[in-house]
Amino acid sequence: MRFSPLPRFALFIVGIFLTLAGLVPLPYVVLQPGGGADVLEKMITIEGAPTYPTSGKLLLVTVLATSPGSPIFGANVLYSWAKADSIVLPRDVVYPPEQSSQQINAVNKADMDGSQSAATVSAFSYLDKIGTPVDPRKVKVKISVKNTGGPSGGLIFALAVVARLTPNDFLTGRTIAGTGTIDAQGVIGPIGGIDEKLIAAKRSGATVFLAPTSNCDDVHHIPSGLTVYSVETLTEAISVLKDAQTSISHCTWQRNR
């Protein structure tokens, strides 16, 4: 009995097609957990006022995202979909479609600079309220962050300024991570990539995580061993760190797998 070679040839063609499809650039972005860096260690310097030592760490956590100009191939998409800690999103969901890579980087840098300024102002305002005023004309705060953009470090920056300018150590030896935008009044706003940042915090050794209340619905799981508090203001965040029993339960989350 003779068999037609067509099925074998067809499989060969399909194999070639799938191979080529895996090498075709696709309009997607891959997001995955980044790292955590202690803002208090090297990132922040304060001049013009007494500063105080701290016994813990304040981690700035990040999300790794492929750049808007980086080609993402079909094989990359399939691999990222298979990884539990990565997500794949359409490029236009993550980056404005009308902006170039250079424009997006410029916006992210401006957002980072703005978050540092707002964090400093909100920290000074908090210190004034608790009876430890600082003169903004004399006190200079410098925060140096490399290879990171966006406004989501505002909360951690503000906490770092307060921690350095107050003698009462509210970190008490803990490794604390957090995220959230902040304005000059100390109001904390939502950010993107909350799940990825929780994973990054856990991997970096954090035991406490401060999250914006407005991100409650975006949290799908919490890594084991990481206690997460939702906060709306800088004052709330510091109150939680001083006494966890005073934490305000704005929302509840499902403990992770």
UniProtKB/TrEMBL annotation:
Gene Ontology BP annotations: protein catabolic process; proteolysis
Alphabetized SUPFAM superfamilies for the sequence: Ribosomal protein S5 domain 2-like (SSF54211)
One GO MF term: ATP binding
Residue ranges of domain Lon proteolytic in the record: 149-237
Pfam families: Lon_C
Signal peptide coordinates: none
Identification of the protein by name: Unannotated protein
Organism listed in the record: freshwater metagenome
